[in-house]
Amino acid sequence: MSGTSLRPMAGSVAVLVALATLPWWAGDQYQIHLAALIAAWWILVAGLNLVVGFGGQLSIGHVGLLAIGAYAFAILAGRHDWSPWIALAASGGLGGVCGLLLGLPSLRLPGFYFAMATMAFALIVAELVLALGDLTGGGVGLSVPGFPEPFESPAGHYLLMLGIATIITWCAWNVARFPWGRALVAIRDNPVAAESVGVPVFRMKLAVFVASGVTAGLAGALFASLQSYITPDTFVFELGLFFFVCIIIGGRGSIAGPLAGTAILTALPELVAPLAKLGTLFYGLLLLAVVLLVPEGIGRLFQVILERLRPRETASPVLEPDAARLAAAIRRQERP
Amino acid sequence: MDFRRPLAALLLSLATVSTAWAESPIRIGWLSSLTGALSSAAVAENQGVQFAVEEINQAGGIGGRKIELVTYDTQGDPTKAVNFAQRLAFVDKVHFVIGPVNSGESLATVPIVAKAGIPNIIIGTIDELVDPKRFPRAFRAINTNRQWITSANDYALKTLKKSKIAIIGDTSGYGTSSAKTAAELLEKAGVKPVFSTLVDPNKTDLTDELAKAKAAGADVVMPWSAATGLLARLLNARGDMGWKVSIVGHPALMAPAIRKLLNKPEYWTDAYAAGYVSMTAGADGKLPAATKSLVDRMRPKLGGAEIDFMFWWVALGYDTVHIVEHAVKKAGGTDPAAIQKALETTSDLKGVYADYTWTPQDRNGFPDVGVVMNLADSFKDGTYRAPKAP
Amino acid sequence: MLGVLITGLAIGALYAATALAYNVMYSTSKVLSVTTGHLAMLGGVFGAWFVTELGWHPVPALFASLAVGAFAGWLTDVIAIRRVLARSDEHLWLLSTLALATIVQQGVALWWGTEPKPFPRLLPQDFTAGLADQKYWLPIGTTIVMAAALELFYRRTLYGKLFVAMSEDAFAARARGVETDRLRAISYGIAGALGALAGFAAGQLTFAFFAVGLTLTLNGFIALAVGGLGSNVGALVGGAALGLLNAFSANLIGGEYQNTVSVGLLMIVLLLKPEGLFGSRRVRPV
Amino acid sequence: MTALVADGVTKRFGGLTALAAVSLDVQPGEVHGLIGPNGSGKTTLLNMLCGYYPVDEGAVRIGEEDLSRASVQRRAAVGIARTFQKPRLLPTQTVLENAMLGGWRDTRTGFLAAALSMPRVRAEQRELRDRAQAVLEGLGLGYALKRRAQLLDHAESRFLEIGRALVLRPRFVLLDEPAGGLTGAEIERLGIVIRTLRDCGIGVLLVEHHTEFVFGICDRVTTLNLGRMIRHGTPHEVRHDPEVIRVYLGS
Predict the structure, then answer these.
(1) Alpha-carbon distance A141 to A130, whole Å?
(2) What is the fold of D4-90+155-249?
(3) Which stretches of chain A drop beneath a pLDDT of 50?
């Protein structure tokens, strides 16, 4: 790994530098706004990706957690004049708590039950936002403050979000490459095998689900301050579907795939008008095509092509166990 | 087949854009939810906007400058609306923004357009949309929600002389806030509603709600919802129950789409909705001259037959462009500060939909006298009749 | 109160019918399809289209709607199930049916519009019938007949018995020469027709509205999970319970908390009796 | 010496008794065979030792520690590892990563530490990687470390599953038909592996249909039929038991 990871690392740094300097080479403020929106969605998707892409728990209701983060920020920073930084942290924390409350009963349920529970959760949040009008502004919504200088300008706000998105990406990548990531993939692909080596399936699912709640809460707060005004119309169920589709299309079990998926699916309808007309239908068609043709996602498609291009190993060597080495290996790891 | 119309409109707007040749055109951004839920108002308004732009351009533009219309379909999604508002402000660099159509979207875009310093013609009814301090260049052309509600309340209390009021709102954002405002305004008038409830806009049957209102002794039911399906079910429930009670409320009560949803046509009687003086035929059956003239001019464009949607939407769209024309002429250009100055000193600007007055303190241009109650079932050729005095 | 009871039962009947459709598909494929509620939506929308827009008599319109539903059910199997079941990944069918459901819903929204449209009167009856109105009794009656017919079908017909065999042990059924692929396609067709029938019967209650599908997918599922997966009696009881709970909660605490109340019911039942009221406990697979 | 013991365990599915008071013990450094016709309860017993099925009667113990109510994970933690009839691997992960999964229970770091890539996490990861690599090389899979598991052939999959079980640092390894689908030469190599495990002091429970292989390698053999134990003893004793010949081996 250490040898081959140098190239992607250099690539990541180059991309990051390019993104960090965007305000200086972007054509206009609209592009910066779009980039900031992508960053907000990605902060949520990065956490959700651990749940959906790695852990295999199909949550289609994260828009509910996003709304909770957004409203928490708007209420705390806007109405109660908390410092935006503390309100941001509180939004993430509240997202995590709500993730815990949703995950505790629902993560024990089988796949379809879980998906329906998350969808119902999103609907309940939407319902409560309207019902608790005194707190949330009801249908009228709430205006949301921004962050203090130097993050007040659009470029500053974008850089703040880019910074947070970078940290979240780094964290998600760490989780993915260390034993946690493997255990999550095992829970997704083979829960029975995961249990057999001692993976505490429910606890891990819950841990990443709570983490995804935190990122959803953070994303909600950042998104709300980017929008500067939130109403219930913003947090429709289709948005939850959108996050989900970003991951599936980008590829399960990958970080770069869903990142690319989020960026492309956010920007594409803005740039290609006919796609915008189709709206959610477009996501449905895309999802169906990916599930039927490349169920591992478009990211995996590239990986497979790269593997094909690499020189094939000529004829598998014979599987020949070496008793002495095996014994040495076993004795070496013997428990004290 | 509803989606074809906005598509055609979009193509038309593209054509307008490409044929505009004047050296320095006046660019108007038009945020319109042409598709998605609640698109019918936007589609109609778009007809008016397009028509006004064409007329003005054919007549040589505003002071020789052609109008260039940049239309974006927000699909009723506030996130998309914000994106497009940013785009209008920073990519297209428009001189004016009209819209968006839905209040939810407007609430999100108005601060952005205000921050960019661009004059914004508001066509959403929610009160919070205008604020001379925070959004000094946002001017409302449409009436406020309050104006609708006040008219309806007055009609129920003073004209019908009913005081036991049942308020029914829907659980959407618009419904909840309107129902709340209605109750507040009633209480200010010294009347406490005898019954008040919120209903899911997709609820299949309202018999139960009406039965409860009846049990509470209501003598008038005031629905505040823009969901025609829900309103039709309300009318049906009243008719099926055989309850003789007046219904007074939101303009959607008189939407032509309701007719098809009613069990019996007569279920639509004894229902009154807030409408417009400009769209109401007088005792002689004649529309105001400006309205009549616009209807006649536009009829060929609208297919030549009877108009089957609410014409006030078209008139509102038509007027927004003329407000822009007025402002540019008065300001002698498109300098935003001058435009602001011009509009806030505008008094009694004649329009089709209404006559507008803005002041430095008040950004609501629509006059209180412009709203009038209509008979819900009086729809004909896009316009309405007022109820006879009881 | 009687009014609340009857409206609750009527909407509960629609939930129950959706749960029955879930069960029929589940029996042959062990798949819970997200499209289930959309099948009923198609019945309502197409029924209204045939009668109101094309001017057909309700009887041919009913059969045409059933055909549309059966076709949509069959299509669900062909597009979203058949190819996916062959792979071992159990998440894929959820994704594929979710994708198909989204396509169906958004496609109908583009074609039919996003406003609810009227559904025609099916039987000659005056509108002042009150609680005896057909809009309540058609869905209730249809669902009861549907459940009874399904029971007869499972007990008396060859195909019904094959469904039961397949639901108990698909491998054994295949080993005995049952064409499981064909059987599954048939079951999806039947489920589609049942869903469309329910949507058609309840059309006057729901109107022809594109968004009914997702609501029914969720509420039909809640009815199913409360009653017990695989149990038709459970589907009826679960549907009725949910419908009544919805109606009474709307009556007592208002309409703002509909979903919260429904999901509350689901959570309580799943906590106390995870297999549902009439479900069977399944042995853990290794 | 602590043995893995099934003490009179009984399992019923509905009205059906899958196992009736079966007792068996696996000693450290022993290969214990478990044979019997299809449906005799071999895999059921194995699943009960691992904790997938709760015990209806009787007990499962290691030494004095009662594991009857312990979860699958807990049993993995005390050193019971297993393989499956049909190898259960992570198809999209590499061979090395699959083996490293076996070392999960040695992961001491929590989610936050992993997310922040604390030095401890990286040290753990390195140590685990080295260990897994050594085991795989010992098994003869050293050439395929970076291959994705879905590209492995059948024998490689079986060996990888054994590798994953070994990285768990097991005291007992339960093998569910490891020779199934292997060629004669591959079975021979499997034998080398199993003997090496025994020599290292690991107790092996071998559920297998390939009787020649079982009798050739096992120290003791238990025979089940219809959920009951019919014979228990050395390979020689079991092979010549008339009852075993009648119900299973045939003449």
Answers:
(1) 9
(2) Rossmann fold (3.40.50)
(3) 1-4
